[in-house]
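Risk mitigation, structural track. In case the binding assays with pyridoxal-5'-phosphate fail to produce interpretable data, a predicted complex structure has been prepared as a fallback.
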Amino acid sequence: MADELTFPSDIYALQSQLRLHGLDPSAHLVQVKSRDGKFLEEDDIIAEMNEDIAMIVLPTVLYRSGQILDMERLTKEAHARGIMVGFDACHSVGVIPHLFDNWEVDFAFWCNYKHLNGGPGCVAGLYVNRKHFARKPGLAGWFGSRKDKQFDMEHTFTQANSAGAFQIGTPHILSMAPLLGSLEMFAEAGIEHIRKKSLRLTQYLMDLIQSELMGYGFEIGSPRHEAKRGGHIILEHPEAARICKALKQEAIIPDYREPDMIRLAPVALYTSFQEVYETVKVLKKIMDGRLYENYENKRGIIA
Ligand SMILES: Cc1ncc(COP(=O)(O)O)c(C=O)c1O
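Fallback model:
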């Protein structure tokens, strides 16, 4: 089971796994519906947890609206029905604290190239709950070996007693180097402090949008409530694709997401409140001068 708002890669992975097991994704993958196309209701997800469900994969933070799902509650409800649950943490790692051990989440995975600053294509991360350490990897490689055994080069796989058992090959060292530096800074600053500043940044951004931009047809498509809000804000506007192009021209880099969303991610460790203020000022200038009309309202190949 997944949801209908999740990132396509997760759906492709689940569909292909089902096919590998001789199952038909159109019949065997349940996708929980969103009531409004933006948010998910935990109650709706729980209502779909029945005896037909073997495993659930959900986002920690939705990549468009930035909604945080209640991972603890969902995990508890899934486990009460004997269902394994994992989370895609791409949009929450480096933004919010994760208590996967305490919540007894079965597994989680994430890319390190957004808030953790690893750079596009940087090696990914995997969390595996201790209770699954003895499970055999579906596709094993020598890097999943116990480290003291790896260079014995035996044809019998002695797996690591950690999430490392699920590693396959040698990680890309050059792409791990920026992560090493970045993680040291995250550890030094502490995720609780980062979360506090991130919430203040997104609140300030929403307050400014509310006071300065509402007359231009913008809608805020992210949760207002702190406990539900991740590290980014979605601004909806019918001209979103070309407003993003105009922002880039002004050296402000948003993400455009279909069909009408501008994703703005002020990052706690390096975005200042002044920059948030400047961003809204630039958006106002783009709207007042209709500068977006210099561009086609269509996304480029890369959004
Ligand atoms: C929520 C989510 N899951 C998965 C991915 C894909 O990550 P990767 O390119 O490392 O496979 C992304 C990338 O943007 C994402 O936002």
